[in-house]
Amino acid sequence: MFRRIAQTLLSTLLICVCGCALFSGASVYTDASGYPLQERKKPKLDGVPVRQVIHLDTSITSAAESDRRLRIVWEELDESGPMSPQDRRRLNETGMRVGVAGSALPWALKSLQRGERGGMASDSTASDQMSFGTSVAVVEGDQTTIELPGSGHLMIPPGELPGFNSGRDLKNAKCVLQITPVEHGPGWVVIRVLPKIQHGSTSVRYNMTDQGEQMPTRQNETALYEQQFELKVHENETVVIGHLKSDEWTLGRLQFQSESLTSVSERLIAFRLNKITQVVGQKSLQVSYREY
Does the predicted model carry a pTM greater than 0.90? Predict the structure, then answer.
């Protein structure tokens, strides 16, 4: 009788210590908290914001208008594939042209970016990364601005630009390109480019982000919607924006050319899609207050 009672007490003690694993044929290993190691899962990131970050390499180059490399560049770029014929014709009428290069940059563009003389041959084996001067990271839902160099003084002829029908002599003025990622996928992004003219007095700019109210901008801005365009860019592709020559005055001449008493220089703007990464944020904290 005493032996049976001792066996019962021992069985009860083993069940309390080992649980159901005592009667299981397979070995079940647990950690300090008692969870089976092979069944424990990683915590989910429910409610944690994940944003895409677009990394762009940018450069602005300048050369004399007569430099033959400015013509050779466009012979090596694809101007017909990135956008529809209607959009390309609309941009050309304003004096702007857009082309796309593949993973290998044209030698003429690399030569211009490095500031080489027109008669010097560029080293085709050199890294393309050396050709780009500034790298920017644009978070999904945000935008960045490329400022075109200029003299700070822009003359708008009468009847050439909406909003300045009688012409305008703009002080403290500059041309900029607003770049906004609007759609993305594995290894590609659709980028919207909106040229603008900023002019007027300069003051400190306060900006509230994340869907907040926008405070007054630091200068007056005139958006050039007739030059706005979108195009799909893949990783390591380079977008080149420049001037299309015309006998008449165009916005492209205002944006991409600078004149002096003895010469005329011309600019090229290039940006390359380097990579697309992700940024994981934190859950928003809700704090409640009470009066004491």
Answer: no
